[in-house]
Write a structure and sequence with these properties.
Length: 410
């Protein structure tokens, strides 16, 4: 959940920006909802689903699941396709998502206990093109909660009475093959990935219980991390067979109020994400702390407890780049979240932000100290605090860090 001070919000009412953010996330969400209110203020919604499906996590193993249908017909893919959102603002994305009405129903995660409606939702999820759909709701939909940091934000929703596809969805033959084959979920994910299907399509299939030997509904948030982790581990094993890079390489980009500095260090593969929510940012505090998670060549132990889903998204983007180059390296990613990121839009923006960084080289360096000094030029939070927390740099000779700090203070 977002951290809001209710007393401060009551005093501010979005006008004075007392929280220090450049815009009020509550009002932004409200304005996005107001723009589409006249289109979704009814119980019978007919339109072209992008296609889009959401599976919640609360109440597990009985979760809320439903199709997302806009009151718009035609090519609506941009409403639920993060790969098409580069260059769009947070406000644009909130508007897109507010157009998607979710018809909710409760379902057991064991798909064998579900009926015809789930079958229709599964067909929708398998489509690679928008599908004309109709959803009948018990009452007019309302916007209940603010967005999640993991999945793209949800629009208005209400309990669903009926859902029907108004046309046949376009389902690739390869998707049918994977769904019909008896494959472990991880094997199915990798087969689809190697065939060129994008990860968000794979996430949909996993979420609605179409992949695995014992198909089960998987909450969308969990599916995103599961797919990115599975593909990341696959690429990590490939990258370990490649030669190491020969120089220190630094890359940098800003995207949707996030700063990304990616430092590649010669050596055997390892990965670390260092993350700071700056003062005034969405989850920031008066004294921002450095969050981090890491892994060596064997992979991460357990779950990324501090940086959570951001870890798997960041790791996957860098591993894809290294796999394309046929090289391996130690990877240090710095992420700073500024007040300009006033509403979370999902971990897809981390995937895109780091890809943009890796397309924007800052330079190559002979020494770690030179590279770190350059990193400090792009970050607002003191570099010393990042380095003091870094597991990866602690693995290197302490003498080198002493030299760096000595040089930085002189």
């Amino acid at each position: 959940m977002m951290r809001f001070n209710s007393k401060l919000c009551a005093l501010c009412k979005g006008r004075k920006l007392l929280c220090g953010r450049p815009t009020c996330p509550i009002l932004e969400r409200f304005m996005a909802a107001q723009k589409v209110a006249k289109f979704v203020d009814r119980t019978d919604i007919f339109g072209s689903s992008p296609p889009s499906v959401f599976v919640g996590e609360f109440g597990y193993p009985r979760v809320k699941i439903g199709p997302l249908v806009p009151p718009v017909e035609g090519n609506t893919r941009h409403l639920d396709d993060p790969l098409r959102w580069e260059g769009r603002s947070v406000r644009d994305i909130l508007y897109y998502r507010s157009l998607l009405v979710m018809g909710e129903m409760r379902a057991d995660v064991d798909v064998r206990k579900s009926g015809r409606v789930l079958g229709e939702i599964q067909e929708l999820a398998m489509s690679i093109k928008p599908v004309d759909s109709e959803v009948l709701l018990k009452r007019r939909p309302i916007l209940k909660v603010l967005p999640s940091e993991f999945a793209p934000p949800l629009g208005p929703r209400a309990e669903m009475l009926r859902f029907e596809l108004a046309e046949n969805p376009k389902i690739p033959r390869k998707t049918d093959r994977v769904v019909e084959d008896e494959l472990k979920a991880s094997d199915a994910i990798l087969r689809l990935y190697e065939w060129g299907f994008d990860e968000y399509y794979i996430v949909r299939l996993l979420s609605v219980g179409l992949l695995g030997l014992r198909p089960r509904l998987v909450p969308t948030r969990w599916s995103i991390t599961a797919v990115q982790d599975t593909i990341g581990n696959f690429l990590r094993r490939k990258v370990l067979d490649y030669p190491e890079i020969s120089h220190y390489e630094l890359y940098f980009a800003e995207f949707l109020g996030n700063r990304y500095a990616v430092l590649l260090i010669p050596g055997r593969y390892s990965f670390e994400l260092l993350e700071v929510w700056l003062k005034g940012s969405l989850f920031g505090s008066a004294e921002p702390e450095v969050l981090h998670d890491y892994e060596n060549f064997r992979g991460i132990k357990g779950y990324a407890e501090e940086t959570t889903g951001a870890y798997y998204a960041a790791r996957l983007s860098v591993l894809e780049a290294l796999d394309k180059r046929k090289r391996q390296a130690k990877i240090l990613v710095f992420r700073e979240i500024t007040p300009a990121y006033y509403a979370p839009v999902g971990v897809w923006q981390i995937r895109v932000g780091i890809r943009k960084a890796l397309e924007n080289p800052v330079g190559r360096f002979e020494t770690l100290n030179e590279a770190l000094r350059e990193v400090g030029r792009f970050l607002e939070h003191p570099l010393e605090r990042y380095l003091a927390k870094s597991w990866l740099l602690k693995q290197r000779a302490q003498r080198r860090l002493d030299e760096f700090f000595g040089g930085a203070r002189s």
